[in-house]
From TrEMBL:
It comes from the Eukaryota. PANTHER family: E3 UBIQUITIN-PROTEIN LIGASE UBR7, E3 UBIQUITIN-PROTEIN LIGASE UBR7-RELATED. This is E3 ubiquitin-protein ligase UBR7 isoform X1. The keyword Transferase does not apply. InterPro entries: UBR7 (IPR040204), UBR7-like_UBR-box (IPR047506), Znf_FYVE_PHD (IPR011011), Znf_RING/FYVE/PHD (IPR013083), Znf_UBR (IPR003126). Residues 304-335 form a coiled coil.
Length: 359
């Protein structure tokens, strides 16, 4: 980490304040994709079972037989400094922090919780491993970490090379992926694949140029599940076009199938990760980039020059400070950064007041 920061800082005049603000903006966009509309101050327990960003605490749940997930706020206020596994998001999940899985450790934010959350679903991700190969990510034994994709049904993450597919489409070519195991378990979905997947869609019914698939109007109780036999292509993972869920039949017979197989959530338009991310963008506050640009715009020419000088001074001092970590191959910790800025605060130059009168 220190090597990378020093390397970036050594590229003199290559990083401007605008670059920093733009990079901050991109980091914030990535954070919104993961955190959605998550609250970093209040435990989500009282919201019930919802899609949310989750973390597994390996410090508190070191026993491999215990799987539990905590919300964003609890990761800050109850598990600071602990070894946390970021789980991205999980659907229909209630925060476990402080319940029976944590022994005598209570939640600092919400004391009144049930002993267990019976509707929570747990997979191997809570142990810090993913895919059919059950490896961590990033994998310390693999320098070339393969891209990982999340199945929208089991919500596990898979290396692209373990999807049992010859070709994995580009990110812009599909909206969601269902892994090979889930396609095998819910094999009726193959009936929809010929029309609504990237690999098997027909030219007359597929989604082109990002257009959303629309439902065909039918009678209320009429089943619209395709009936063609696709036994010859029922293999591997499946990549679905945007809007494919809207093509799923809503008749009572089909709803019964979804319920029995535990995938009724596929009919919920708010279930998708995309909907979750959009909710986060709607509720987000003014970004650091927006604040920074407003601050820069409010400065006169002299103040801008002073700000640039201070920024370059900060960059040089940070470069010198981090050089020690790079040379000693040490990890930069949160407390190290706090120490740096604490020293910077104490070394601030006294403000020079220019007299406005003569004697």
């Amino acid at each position: 980490m220190a090597d990378k920061l020093v390397e970036n800082l050594e590229e003199d005049n290559s990083v401007t304040m605008l670059d920093v603000l733009q990079e901050e903006s991109q980091l914030e966009e990535n954070a919104y994709a993961v955190l959605g509309a998550s609250d970093d101050r209040n435990c989500t327990y009282n919201k019930g079972y919802i899609r949310q960003a989750l973390y597994a605490c390996k410090t508190c749940c070191s026993n491999k037989n215990v799987r539990a997930g905590v919300c964003l706020a609890c990761s800050f206020h109850c598990h600071e400094g602990h070894e946390l596994v970021e789980l991205y998001t999980k659907r229909n999940f209630r925060c476990d922090c402080g319940n029976s899985k944590f022994g005598n450790k209570e939640c600092n934010l919400e004391k009144c919780k049930n002993a267990t959350n019976v509707e929570n679903m747990y997979n191997q991700n809570f142990d810090g491993v993913y895919c059919t190969c059950a490896r961590p990510y990033p994998d310390p034994e693999n320098e070339n970490n393969d891209e990982m994709l999340q199945c929208v049904i089991c919500e596990d993450w898979y290396h692209s090379k373990h999807l049992e597919c010859k070709d994995v489409p580009g990110d812009d070519a599909y909206a969601e992926m269902i892994c090979a195991a889930c396609m095998d378990k819910h094999d009726f979905l193959w009936k929809y694949a010929a029309k609504y997947s990237t690999m098997y869609n027909s030219s007359t019914a597929s989604c082109k140029n990002g257009e959303k698939i629309l439902n065909v109007e039918t009678l209320p109780n009429e089943c619209t599940m395709p009936q063609q036999n696709l036994s010859d292509i029922k293999k591997g993972s499946c990549f679905w076009l945007e809007g494919w869920r809207s093509s799923l039949c809503n008749c009572e017979s089909c709803k019964k199938i979804y319920t029995e197989q535990g995938i009724l959530f596929l009919l919920d338009p708010k279930d998708s990760v995309q909907a979750y991310e959009e909710a986060g963008k709607i509720t987000k506050h003014e970004s650091q980039y927006e604040k920074g640009m407003k601050a820069l715009a409010s400065l006169d020419h002299v103040q801008q020059l002073t700000a640039i000088e201070e920024y370059n001074n900060l960059k040089e001092r940070l470069k010198e400070y981090l050089q020690k970590f790079a040379e000693n191959k040490k990890v930069v910790r949160e407390e190290d950064i706090k120490e740096f800025f604490s020293e910077m605060e104490s070394k601030k130059r006294p403000k020079v007041v220019v007299p406005t009168y003569c004697r």
